[in-house]
Design brief:
Elements: H1 7-20, E1 25-30, E2 46-50, E3 57-61, E4 65-72, E5 75-82, E6 86-91, E7 97-100, E8 149-151
Parallel strand pairs: 7-8
Antiparallel strand pairs: 1-2, 1-6, 3-4, 4-5, 6-7
């Protein structure tokens, strides 16, 4: 039996911690062919997503991926992110959270479990060792908050 990744558990834990403390959970995602996000908001192959209860509908964070519906420029869109594509999870207000290594070589990524309908799961591309923090003001990602740890 293979060991499951700790990543989905850490993502859920940070989301719960944010909710308990009145903070806003954000995901940094390395976009690839298996991620379903609004392309207009992707910068340098990454997107930063607000996954708070007030910003999403039908949020699901399971061992396969993160799925929800949200409004982007007033238009409701479905978002689906495989766990392998998540590069970080953090609280917008404090920067506290975790950064994850995302596999560069698709063949090097562990095989994913069977995905539910509507979510294609595949290996993600590696991103540089920088993790974007929540956009502030100009909407451009900033460098990694000091509290994030790289989890391999």
């Amino acid at each position: 039996m293979s060991e499951q990744s700790a990543k989905p558990y850490l993502v859920r834990a940070i989301c719960e911690w944010c909710a308990d403390n009145g903070l806003t959970p954000y995901l940094t995602v390395r976009v690839n062919g298996q991620t379903r996000v609004p392309a207009a908001y992707v910068k340098n192959g990454e997107i930063v997503l607000n996954i708070s209860a007030s910003a999403t509908r039908h949020l699901t964070v399971d061992n396969i991926g993160v799925r929800f519906s949200a409004r982007f420029s007033g238009s409701s869109q479905e978002v689906a992110v495989p766990i392998d594509a998540i590069a970080g999870v953090f609280a917008k207000e404090t920067g506290y959270g975790f950064a994850f290594t995302v596999a560069r070589d698709p063949a090097a990524a562990p095989p994913a479990a069977t995905a539910p309908p509507g979510l294609d799961v595949g290996p993600a591309l590696e991103r540089d060792q920088r993790v974007a923090e929540a956009p502030k003001g100009d909407g451009k990602p900033k460098s990694r908050p000091p509290h994030l740890q790289i989890i391999k």
